[in-house]
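#struct-help
A.M.: can someone run this one for me? Single chain, 308 residues.
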Amino acid sequence: MKILVYGAGAVGGFFGGLLAHAGADVRFVARGAQLEALRTSGLTIDSRLRGTVRVPTVSASDSARSAGPMDLILVCVKTQQLPGIMDDLAWAVSDHTVIVPLQNGVEADDHLATRFPQAMVLPAVVYVGATLEQPGVVSHVAAGTIGIGARRRSDREVLPAIREALARSGQPVHVSDDIQRERWHKLMWNAAFNSVSAITERVPADLVAHPGTRGLVLAIMNEVLDVGRAHDVDLRAEDIDKHIAWTESATGLRTSTMVDRERGRAMESDGLIGVIVRKGREVNVPTPCSAVVYALLNAIDVSSEQDP
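D.P.: on it. Structure tokens below:
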């Protein structure tokens, strides 16, 4: 199976690197310093769980055009970068291509399926505590799991083969019976903690320890609950309790959006909390806390772009 990893940052570098290390036929699309590092020194994964994994030689390019049609494409760019890669991604998509977006949020598969109706797009959820520490070096400190599901009943036939292909990474991969619940369950945490941690520059465990910010993240998660249920997603009140309990013990954990702000990168505010505001409007569910936090994140992004 020919695999294209589009976006070789933390997520793409981690799973793509492990697949390449296991002998899979993997090509990467990257940009800038990351592309140069992949071409000159390969990829290194420093994992607290798996030790140091080195892939000294990888196939990397700045465009999918050089790769040609692929069997499996893992889309690993940030949510806000997805529209900008569609035309280039088209070079790698054929009638038999399977596309799996390994992204935050709950909308990527809809956008990809609309753009590539000839391909099979599988919704997915990914959990991985990884960051790109420097070009060519991925740091991994927590679990790395993938769940995949089907948009259409007929797509379920391919799920075992895709699960097997991804499991060559050595990481847990499962076929989900309710991928929408899994994705919204993750979004519930991300919408609250990624967003508020980026604004306050406080780690999630600190947010739940302070009454004011604890109340805010609870309010946002309840808005996600209401919006998700209105869209027929099986979210439950106990999901919020479980998120809070887990976060209380996750001392030191820094969110990806918090790291993006620290490093002056654009934040995934639209895909993580803007989506709650939009989808709330679609079903007339008010999301006042999410709307305010989304506006603040957008203001921070604009300020960052204008700074010298």
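A.M.: thanks! The longest helix spans residues 179-200.
D.P.: also worth noting: The chain has two domains: 2-177, 180-306.
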